[in-house]
Design goal:
The chain has 327 residues and is an alpha+beta fold. The chain is 46% helix and 19% strand. The longest helix is centred in the middle third of the chain and has 33 residues. The two termini are 40 Å apart. Keywords: Hydrolase, Membrane, Transmembrane, Transmembrane helix.
Amino acid sequence: MDTATHIGMGLGLSAIATLSPEVSGDAQLFLAMTATALVGSHAPDFDTVFKLKGNSTYLRQHRGRSHGITALLAWPIIVSAVIGTVLGVNPASLWVMAQIAVLLHVTVDLFNAYGTQALQPFSKKWIGWGVIGTFDPYLFSAYYGAYALWMITGATVPIFALLIALVISYYAIQFKLRNRALATVARHFAGAHELFISPGIGWDDWHVAVRFRDGLGAVKVKKGKVIECGRFRDKPMPGEEDLHFVEARKNADLQAFLEFSKIHTYTVTRHNGMIEYRFTNLRYFSKNMYPFVAVVIVDEQTNDVLSSFTGWVFSEDSLQKKLVYEQ
């Protein structure tokens, strides 16, 4: 989920903590509990620091070890120890809150299409169920609405009991809608071999990338209606005979993209003495484009990599600004 939604969940946890007389009756403990809930709810995403080392490093590390089994045990200890020490509260009294906050963060991220490497360090397999969008306006509104209502009324039990019931019901409904969308696409394409689904921003709105035995496709599914977005050749990658691509394949940006992407297509373009290899992931679709790409540009004469990029861009102009050419 996005940062704001994780923080909204943390606020809810801090409110629920006031059900304990010890927390509600001790201002310092309540402050520490709130800080623990908020920091714990965001802690696994501290891997954002890897952006400082470039997009390829960030892509390899984000939602990897930081969301794995070892981290699930380590983050609560670190968070409770640091906050307890800073605020003068026994860290042991904060550990349960930290554990719940971290566990919720890691769990809800599994419901995104992006997913996590939740089984790290035992497996690097990406697990993502494609049920809830990275940003879900309904969940966002529910979390902050409930917290605001609690601030006004202080009615902890009825507000958060209702919130929990609504959230569980919403996830169950989303699972049902996702499965229906997949079944609809499978019927639409009788020859579909693999399906990769991502939720849209609207109600019962989905994007599905399709692998056939002889090609690729992408569709939008809105309330059961299938809208085709395009068909693509499932081309094998260039072989050893393409010396330019052999060099491009060594590039860290392209390697990170290929490690992560489950379904993509690519184009090869020659212009002004340069060769552009552009890989486009078909699972993610936003603003009428496929924003997750990897681009490597190779000098046709020297075979040197002139520029590269991997990540999310939402216009061609933005992509060109990120491709800084080496002299």
